[in-house]
Amino acid sequence: MIDQVSQRQQDILALARLHGRVSVEELAARFEVTPQTIRKDLNELCDSRLLSRIHGGAVVASGVENVSYEARRLVAHGEKRAIGEAAARLIPNSASLFINIGTTTEEVARALGDHEDLLVITNNLNVATLLYRHPKMSLIVAGGPVRRADGAVIGSAAVDFINQFKVDYAVIGASAIDEDGTLLDFDYREVRVARAIIENARRVILVADKLKLDRSAPIRVGHLRELDYFVTDAMPSAALREMCAVNRVELVEAGLGAHETSDAAE
User: Fold this and answer.
1) In this protein, which residues make up the domain named HTH deoR-type (predicted)?
2) Mean pLDDT in the chain?
3) Beta-carbon contacts of residue 76 (< 8 Å; ≥ 6 apart)
4) Integer CA distances (angstroms), 257 to 12, 61, 111, 254, 261, in order
């Protein structure tokens, strides 16, 4: 029985690494065991720090290394699409903006299709691919080394390039958000670019789904107080909701409806 459980746990871990997350219900059906058995497996994998529990399942433990970019695209895809659309509504026509690397920032770019006269500066080759054909948009791509894992342009050359600009909006993501409001990521080279983007924008928009509140990452990007907008699908943390209110960060919960915002910043 121990060997069978061990093999099942290895299979669960492989599925989590492939898709970014697993659910109790889906795993119970797949392995034809009870949800209680799956919860025990997940708890043991979490005790070994291979997975991290979230409501209804688990995600790959992310203390030092991120989930693959393609897997992250699959995680909370519908939520990210709604977040992208809500964030795009905050950006007016004839604005200038940075768009950073990330699967959720890509959804913002995708939702900008009806905008006109935008100047978009990005270190995200995926964003550039989405936008370069747009007839009413000017696109500038930062130069520097390209990270094969996700098409991010990173390094000192990208930082120097971004420092030449002062734009209206910055659209950034985060790999994890701590309960104290710290924004976290995995690659210090990416963080240096993110810092330059934050410091050279008049307004900063963070786009991040609620699963980022259950994750951890080792490198500090910044703090929630530096934001002007925090666009998410939902905000289950009372502490972060209060922090938004205290720091006058407009909290937009895309899951509430197409045009609704919370009263946190009022």
Assistant:
1) 5-60
2) 87
3) 209, 211, 233
4) 34, 31, 16, 6, 8
Task: Show the tokens assigned to 176.
Answer: 């994890």
Which whole-number Å values give the CA distances from 3 to 6, 44, 79, 207, in the listed order? Answer: 5, 14, 38, 42
Average pLDDT in the 175-197 region? 93
pLDDT digits (tens, 9 = 90+) for 148-182: 888 889 889 999 999 999 999 999 999 899 999 99
Taking the C-alpha atoms of residue 123 and residue 247, their distance in angstroms, rounded to an integer, is: 28
d(CA 72, CA 69): 5
Q: What are phi and psi of 19, to 5 degrees?
A: -105, -10
CATH of domain 76-253: 3.40.50.1360
Pick 7-73's CATH classification: 1.10.3210.10, 2.60.40.10, 1.10.287.3510, 1.10.10.10.
1.10.10.10
Q: What is the pTM of this model?
A: 0.75
Please report which confidence band the pLDDT of residue 74 belongs to, taking 50, 70 and 90 as the band edges.
low
